[in-house]
Amino acid sequence: MQVRKRIQVSGIVQGVGFRPYVYRLAMDRNLGGNIGNTPAGVTIEIQGRPDLVEDFISRLPEEAPALAQITQVNVREMPCEPERRFEILSSSTGEPASALVSPDVAVCEDCLRELFDPRDRRHLYPFINCTNCGPRFTIVRDIPYDRPRTSMSAFAMCGKCRAEYEDPRNRRFHAQPNACWQCGPQLELWDAQGRPVEALDPLDPINMIEAAVKRLQSGEILAVKGLGGFHLAVDAGNEAAVKRLRLRKRRMEKPFAIMVRDLESAGRFCEIDAEARRLLSGRQRPIVLLQKRKDAAIAETVAPNQRDLGLFLPYTPLHHLLFPAGEFAALVMTSGNLSEEPIAIDNREAVDRLGGIADFFLVHDRDILLRCDDSVVRSSGGRVRQIRRSRGYVPAPVRWREELPRILAVGGELKNTICLTRHNLAFLSQHIGDLENMESIEFFGEAVAYLSRILEIEPEIVAHDLHPDYFSTKWALSRKGVRLVGVQHHHAHIASCMAENGVEGRVIGLALDGTGYGTDGQVWGGEALLAGYESFERAAHFAYAMLPGGAAAIREPWRMALSYLAQTFGGDCLALDIPFVQKLERGKAETILRMMAQRVNSPLTSSCGRLFDAVAALIGIRQEATYEAQAAIELEMAARSSSETAGYPLAICRQDEHWVIDASPLFGAIVEDLRRKVCAEIISRRFHNGLVETLVRLACLLREESSLNQICLSGGTFNNSLVFENLTRDLISHGFAVFTHSQVPSGDGGLSLGQALVAAHSAHN
Length: 765
Ligand SMILES: [Zn+2]
Ligand SMILES: [Zn+2]
Ligand SMILES: [Zn+2]
Known about the structure:
Layout: E1 3-12, H1 18-28, E2 32-38, E3 41-48, H2 50-62, E4 69-78, E5 87-88, H3 109-115, H4 159-166, E6 187-191, H5 205-217, E7 222-225, E8 230-235, H6 239-249, E9 258-260, H7 263-269, H8 274-281, E10 287-291, E11 308-312, H9 317-326, E12 330-335, H10 347-354, E13 360-364, E14 376-380, E15 383-388, E16 398-399, E17 407-409, E18 419-422, E19 425-428, H11 438-455, E20 461-465, H12 471-477, E21 483-487, H13 489-501, E22 507-517, E23 523-531, E24 536-542, E25 545-546, H14 552-555, H15 557-569, H16 579-583, H17 586-597, E26 604-605, H18 608-618, H19 630-640, E27 651-655, E28 658-662, H20 664-675, H21 680-706, E29 710-714, H22 721-733, E30 737-739, H23 751-762
Parallel strand pairs: 2-5, 7-13, 9-11, 10-14, 17-20, 20-21, 22-29, 24-28, 29-30
Antiparallel strand pairs: 1-3, 1-4, 2-3, 6-13, 7-8, 8-12, 9-12, 10-11, 14-15, 16-19, 17-18, 18-19, 22-23, 23-24, 25-26, 27-28
């Protein structure tokens, strides 16, 4: 007796070795039938003895390849057919899609072994890959994922590669980017004008890598094409070279990440524990923020004034070839762009945009179809925290418990990402960046178009921020034929945290960040909400302070310090006998005070980020910021070198409908300590401690009033791990159910997910 069943499998099942896996599973059980990629995932028909068919179905999800992510399995009965052996069908198109493209994957151990094996036919081939590794998301033009719909379509496989590609028992069976020296992509070394370096034989790429390495060793800047875009590389031990890169890239102080050869050398730069090891060597290969060792042998300018260092390991075969040839301890590897612009991906584009930065280019002819920066993570409180979620993680979806409408959420302004939903899945885009220049705005358009195409989502709802001047808001408002849903910034933060944790009902939401447009038109940023997906109320916030000069006050933290001093001490604040006041430029300070007194260009803010700025400036840590959150990062670093346990007082007062956190007592106490010449480290620690105590007190107050015990923490301030870890610990010890981010960023990179979920719930009204 025989049975035949049709099994539909959805999820990430294409380009991850799923079909050969199923083939083997069927052959081992002597079953007939077939498997094919469809836009809906894969469809399997399986025929044979009933017990063997049952065994096949039960093992199917259990033993699936590591990269596969099955979201759904549907089985139905079929009439039996004349018996045939199991076969793999060629791709079909035309059905509605639910197949998911895999993120890009770091080169696997098997490929690495071959890469360095002199007997292997791919010995030292910089584009070696297999079904378990290599480019995916960044080379896909369309779905289903098959070679003609990738940027590998330009390369015809040689006989040997094709034989591997067609052999179901081979590790390269249907590995779409499969290639070798004979048939695949090749390297070229170009000068700064994009002309091939003549003395080199184009058929001798090893010679080329050696030439590139020599130049790196002599301190030159190399633009090297990677998986999701170009990197700018220099020897991290060469102070002059790193300085030159900073100057040319116009990135003065924001830290650079470094790539090191392996885990062993990582340990020479940073403190590495088991979790760090796991993150560094995982297949996503993100940049991991780790505490820098005091004796780390890198140029001071790589990460000035930083306690942590962004570290990552090689993830393309080309990276692996650069290190042994170069004997570098570490390479600075930073996105190939001018400060704040998107990363360059095309060879000619790279020469145009990076020609003034790089001394030479190591390029290849496999096109990158979509920009995708390196991801940045850290481990905190035992879980991975996304700082920038991009290569290696995108487009893996966040799962929701029920079917969602088709939504496009366009995110905020800074660290923009977008989110598209389909069925019960929410897909966040890669990091798009700050939508403040033409290049980023174009990238935003590319990302929307590309993701909508490969996910086959035509949105019925477009969700956006409330800020009328954000590019993303204006873009959303210009859409026709869709329902628009505006979502308040901090509501989106909290909904994002709820969504990735599957939280239902209502929560106390602490949304702490720099800037978000409030429903009263003011700049919010230190908010306690009582919120569900469908609505929120503002239960508490930091007392409004003036932002003298608007955006200028964000770039110049000393303005915020002066603003808080004026608020606390009135017009006499310039008479305070503390170093901050003594060092102020009198004329400038008086202008600022006048501006605030007359309410000229001094919007109100409840921003938590600005409070950090003010304290950092007041105690002499940072007067002007050259990148976002710089003052807060340096303040946290100072606090960490103190073991002080006391905290400054902040008042919680009732004002109209809600609670207000008044920072005046805090500034009174800091000024007192400054007079007593207490050091910046202790003051900073007392500030952090006081803030955490106050937030816990506030949470308890709100719990009493609302009877809510679930609390969600979101917003960029929680990238401060001192606040994050201590607050989480104390809230848990007070009996709260605390939810935090892990899958998506706590900062504005996670906003689009929250916007989508709020919009999904507004759809029912
Ligand atoms: Zn591999
Ligand atoms: Zn070949
Ligand atoms: Zn925010």
